[in-house]
Amino acid sequence: MSARAWFGFISLVTLSTIAAIGLWWPPMLISYLIFGPLFLVGVYDLFQDKHAILRNFPVIGHGRYLFEAIRPEINQYFIESNTDGMPFDREQRSVVYQRAKNVNDTTPFGTQLDVYLPGYEWLDHSLRAASPTADDARLTIGNKHAGKPYSSSLLNISAMSFGSLSSNAVEALNRGAARGQFAHNTGEGGISSYHLAGGGDLIWQIGTGYFGCRAADGGFDPDRFTERAAHEQVKMIEIKLSQGAKPGHGGILPAAKLTREIAEIRGVPMGQDVLSPPCHRAFDSPTGLLEFVARLRELSGGKPVGFKLCVGRRDEFLGICKAMIATGIQPDFITVDGAEGGTGAAPLEFSNSMGMPLTEGLVFVHNALRGSGQRDDITLLCAGKVLGAFDIARLLAIGADGCYSARAMMFALGCIQARRCNHNDCPTGVATQKPNLVRGLDIDDKADRVHRYHHNTMHAFLELLGAAGFSDPTQLRPWHIHRRLDYRQSMHYGELFSYLEPGALLGDRSGLSKDWNELWDRASADRF
């Protein structure tokens, strides 16, 4: 029996008992003054569609909103007592909730951060500031190689699989993407009916488990891929090489979250954890990867194809660059995932100590493509704690063309960071497969919140762009973003990182650093 049904049954029995006792003991009628209002509150909670916590936990769920009401004071405590960046994360999360709910996201009394603490960052403004002229900004992916290029928003939904997320969460994300005209990455779990229900654009992610295009032996099935890739909603294909939160580990879907529906979509047996291998079987070298890219582009009818990775051994990525030169095959896009990216389940050591953080990884990949003469032909996307408009501006300034966000989209769905994703009992219905919890997440309401978060964040980004004196995101450069190093010193990103000139890795390399020369010499197109 669901929580809702249990509540109704217990409430009915309780009130009936109180009424019966009250007939012969009138003082008992005083209980109505206590239980009556609580009963009415519980009934309202069950049938409202704005708060998943209250739908799943009537009456007692109000305790959370009591604490939420005093959040500004709680945030101020953390701002005054911490210097590790946590206050900024909390403030950003609060802004995500406000934008998703379409309420005032302005703050009084100016900045609540100490601008002289190490790590503080800012964007240069211009005395020729301009107002934003559009509600969104877009880029074309696949112009050179794909027969069906895709016009993408600068901010899209990052990879989160059905299985990790609930059916209602996936459908709400897709409906929100359709309303806001941005893209929804499926995650490596395959394309479900919930990804298709909203009509939103999809980026189909193909992981090492080949879910959705999986052969009986666990390898890649080209026929199944062709069938699914032909769907009108599938706009791009992304090959997942590694994930920021657990690079080199593969994906994990705990058996507790594996339903028969998910097993059928993925083509896996019931009753055991679903483990994606740490690497692909369809290729084992940089050249093989690019041949696989070309094969998927052909099988999909010319849709843009790219790959996603968290940067690890740098010479291996340079090997991919060498393979592009040798074969003439280029991906339409590359997604750089930072080590700070999130996940529903990963070993602690992998989450904390494996992979390159997004900033370093993004700058390196941008430099590698630029130095090998291929940056202009490949769209560079990124993911890793992208929450607000400044995050987008900073990442575009230091090398990216567009961004993904997973964490903020989950906040927009109502995620409260209960950190129960891997236990299958998420109280908001976002990351669980339990029907009594999933039904608490109202699809239409949360789809609107996802749409509003995206719309309001992109509007804020365009306002920042205008304040900097620019009309086009491509005008942002590394020297427009500054980072404080200590109380007396700050640098812009053009000083923090060295940027290679186009083609610097080709021909005469005498002017390059020893590090770049050694990495390029070690790189091979024939092996990872």
UniProtKB/TrEMBL annotation:
Signal peptide: none
BP-aspect Gene Ontology terms: glutamate biosynthetic process
Highest taxon of source: Bacteria
InterPro entries registered for this protein in UniProt: Aldolase_TIM, GltB, Glu_synthdom, YerD
Single GO molecular function: glutamate synthase activity
Pfam families: Glu_synthase
SUPFAM superfamilies: FMN-linked oxidoreductases
Glutamate synthase domain ranges (all copies): 153-470
Family per similarity comment: Belongs to the glutamate synthase family.
Protein name according to UniProt: Ferredoxin-dependent glutamate synthase
Source organism of this protein record: Enhygromyxa salina
Lineage, broadest ranks: Bacteria, Pseudomonadati, Myxococcota, Polyangia, Nannocystales
